[in-house]
Amino acid sequence: MTAMATSPASRQPISFAFLAQVILIANSFIMLYPVVVMVLSAFKTTGEIFEHPFALPDFTQVGNFAKVLGETAMPTYFVNSIIVTGVSILLILVLGTMAGYAVARYESRTNTFILLFFLAGLMLPLKLAVIPLFILLRDLNLLDSRWSLIVTYTAIGLPSAVFIMAGFLRSLPSELEDAARIDGASEPRIMWSVMLPLARPPMAIAAIQNAVPIWNDFFFPLVFIQTDAYKTLPQGLTTFMGEYTTDWGMLFAGLTIAAAPITLLYIALSRQFIQGMTAGAVK
Amino acid sequence: MPVSPKQARTLKHRSWVAFLVVPPVVFMSLFVVYPILSAFAYAFYEWQGLARGEFVGLANFREVLFGATMAPTVWNAFLHNVYALIALMIIQNGGGFLLAWLLYKEPFGFRFHRVAVFVPVVLSTIIVGFLWKLFLNPNFGIINQALYSVGLDSWAKPWLGDSSTALGALILANAWHFVGFPTLVYLAGMQRIPSEIIEAARLDGTSEWQLLKNIVWPLVAPSTTILFTLLFIGAFNWFEIPYVMVGLDGSPFGSTDVLGLVFYRTAFGNQSASIQNFGLGSALATLIFLFIVVFASMLTLWLRRREIQF
């Protein structure tokens, strides 16, 4: 980051800088205000929302939250989302690191083929193959279970993880490996104890890049899951919204609870989130 | 025959590499390659529910593109995808470029604005869709409430219930959701421009507009390529926002119908009609898929040509 004195802004006329501030403040207001209204409305009764939509609520009035957490299936959806996202990310990292490591550290004639294979997976929207995927999962007896989502998300996330891991592992100097090899370390030992401890940063990027879309996905649960006990948060939210259509206090409380974990995590780790989520588009 | 030490080592080595490579490749083949190849094959069959019937050649494709019942819906939806693509290119990607330029100058509070613009991006599309559906409610939504409170009663509308505004409302909700993504990708692109180039242009007295048009825009061409390609793919896969905000039928009167909704209705059934047709669904998916692959690669190649190395 450059110091303010030499920053590109310093030679701008005042009026331009002022206009830029106005636009940025207006934009941030538009980005944040709807989220603020959502949270404020969650503390209001439906009547209060209709009569005073912009007023500050009484923050001690947490009845809507208690009802959402105590009387609806929201906690179940929440647990399902954590299980599905967690297991998918674990599989993506394990399988992605395996393929990425082999491609990056071992010379082989098949490497180009393997990379092209995963590149194709990166480009093809699996959404459009949902019919055969549906039939495949039915034949494997995985339909209407958390596994149907886990294998789908792993398949979608795997290619990007292979490229992130291969790109990083290729940049590590071979002296590291050679030294360990001379000391008589086996190949699995070199991978596990020498190379992988260095590969935590790209793993974090691959994890965030995939975790956010998986956590937020709605399309595949909509097609694969019918049983309420297996629904994830975004899909459960549609069931919930359908049940309480006229109780706006409940609706806003449900939305707030669903949005809270990822929003708070983002605020705490905004740099890593931004880096991870734009990793595919920024080289 | 005894195995020589070298052979043993290569054998051991090979099985180790195979151990690393085979599971991911098998996984991908089973859950990505096989379904995608099957999707093409399924389109050539007639289906009774989940059971595959007779080979019907190109009949499903013909029905999707030219059939009396299906084709008008498909073309109507396709047109809405095109509108969404053009509008989002201007609002989402164009707006992102301008916001990135303002952030690039690192004005007062830029760290806050950079975090703020990305907040909606991390939210689930379902949350964004429901939130805006509530805000756009004709009677109690904050949009109309705000118009009433400043005396613009005549501007208040049932935004999602009026076929002249519904698609526009969906597009704006989508832009609100994602504008942070192009903003930060462009910002990263601008930060990679060597600062001497911009300094030199400033010393030459280049105006702000000239600088933006003749120097920054051409130099962030790689970001433009990837953002426009991603938007293209996203626009023709558009499903979640319309599904949540206007429902499966693209109401009112099909004015918000898009290909994603048509595909879902055809393949997995409309709740009211509960008809499902995997043959027509697969044919439509295949056509969307080919359209995306062909045009996205053409777009990428065309955009790549205008990228400059520096």
TrEMBL record, chain A:
Recorded protein name is Raffinose/stachyose/melibiose transport system permease protein
Q: How does it sit in the membrane?
A: Multi-pass membrane protein
- Family membership: Belongs to the binding-protein-dependent transport system permease family.
TM stretches of this protein: 16-43, 77-101, 113-135, 147-169, 190-212, 248-269
Compartments where found: Cell membrane
Xref: InterPro entries: MetI-like, MetI-like_sf
Pfam families associated with the record: BPD_transp_1
Answer yes or no on keyword Membrane.
yes
* Superkingdom of this protein's organism: Bacteria
- Species whose genome carries this gene: Microvirga guangxiensis
TrEMBL record, chain B:
Q: What is its main location?
A: membrane
Q: Which InterPro entries match?
A: ABC_transporter_permease, MetI-like, MetI-like_sf
Q: Which domain of life is it from?
A: Bacteria
The membrane-topology field of this record reads: Multi-pass membrane protein
Q: Which CDD domains match?
A: TM_PBP2 (cd06261)
Which compartments is it annotated to reside in?
Answer: Cell membrane
Which GO BP terms sit in this record? transmembrane transport
Q: Where are the transmembrane segments?
A: 16-45, 82-103, 115-135, 166-188, 215-239, 278-303
Which residues are in the ABC transmembrane type-1 domain?
Answer: 74-299
Q: Does the keyword Chloroplast apply?
A: no
One family from Pfam that matches here is BPD_transp_1
A cellular component term, taken from the record's GO annotations: plasma membrane
Keyword terms: Cell membrane, Membrane, Transmembrane, Transmembrane helix, Transport
Q: Which PANTHER family match?
A: ABC TRANSPORTER PERMEASE PROTEIN (PTHR30193), INNER MEMBRANE ABC TRANSPORTER PERMEASE PROTEIN YCJO (PTHR30193:SF37)
What's this protein's family per the entry? Belongs to the binding-protein-dependent transport system permease family.
Query: Which named protein is this?
Result: Raffinose/stachyose/melibiose transport system permease protein
